Amino acid sequence: MSTAGMRFISKALDRSDSEAFKRCRLKPVHFPTRDEERIVSWIEEYNQKNAGACPTPEEVAAEFVAFEYYPDVPAAFESLAREVKENWAQRETVRLLRGKLDPQDQEEQVRGITVKKLFEEKEGIELVRGLLSELEHIEQEADVSKRLGRNLRDMSADGLEEYHRRKEGKSFKMWRTPFETLNKEIGGLYSGDVYTIFAESGRGKSYLTIAFLDEFLRQGATVLFKSYELKWFLVLARLISIASARDEAFTDVRTKRKIGIRNKGILTGKLTGAEEGLYEQMVREINDYYPGQIILQAKSDHELTRSLSELDQELRSNQGIDVVVIDPFNNVSDVYGRNVNKTAGGAAETAARRFEQIIGQYDVVGLTTVQASVENSQKDKEKIRAGKRELKLPTRDQVKTTKAVLEVSSNLFSFDNVDGVARIGTEKGRNGGEGFYVDLIAMLDYGVLREAPSGEAVREQFTAVF
């Protein structure tokens, strides 16, 4: 059963905002359980008897054993109310069509409408109109009225509270990237915002997302990871390789660099004795190794969903998710769906904007990948043919799928990787950092993707390895 009702009540009590029920046109009858109905009725009575005051969660808990308190609910009142009313509309429609009169049903007591009564009193077109009228009533009642916008009084009242909630880390969450220099520049990845990684094909976008995944899990995040191009074992192999490299499990004899378990060795079942022993230990203990948790939907898994409607439902049903990763975004079915605005790429644009809305509604971090179009000069092509390709970050005008991905992203991370070195840059920075980049050491088969020591000639050191 949905927890939206109890979460709405908890949020109203936390904010001492009993007016939230009126603003969202929520009545006791809209809530799914008798306990919730009684709690909301009691809050309304308390408000009337105490000059508009709102009870505390402790006072409600003392009156109602069934009250389930949710502290620091991040979702907006409107989104919670919409969920409550959508569920009410479904129940009410079923009640109407079944034609059963429940003597405890307040709505029926007030309006006295049942299908049986309609059939007894009306016929033909009048019967159809009667049914439509009842359905229209349900539709109107399920509407959540929203204010036109915030005025100065609203912002004055909410501004200080929101600042202190952010100061205490209650209003939003920020998750660090794997690269400390990048964190210093952009702050981190903020809940409610979309972030996008883009690179040319085969340059390591998926690998980079798993490096981000490792960092999120180390911070205790619960991550919903949709991998449309990698099967579950490939994701696990890369994650173990990256984790072991961060633990500095081994030392490369040629470069003296700290490395992890070979990814290809895991995939082919050809690890050395020491690697195999560590791999088996890490796999057995991985649930305790990370403070966070992953919900993996990988290529060919029957759990893997592809539509944004399914993502919406998954987030609604799993309130503990902190981060959503979609790799790549163009494999979401909505990208090739109905083109409502009849323009080139219209479906993809609509999908990107709906994804942004879902991420904001559930106050989670959204991380996606998209491909960059290839733009090589004749000179570049000659270097590539000669095996001397240079490190080159793509620019924002190379974003494929839809430019709306660029527009909805708080940060657009460009990425490239060649001959043991890599670079991550910010092609767009809503909160700063645009044009910034970080040079990286990239020994991807050994789990290594870390910042290059400042001033060190990394390319010369690592070219021999590859």
Automatic annotation (TrEMBL):
Gene3D superfamilies named among the record's database cross-references: P-loop containing nucleotide triphosphate hydrolases
Protein name (record): Uncharacterized protein
UniProt source species: Paludifilum halophilum
Organism taxonomic ancestry: Bacteria, Bacillati, Bacillota, Bacilli, Bacillales
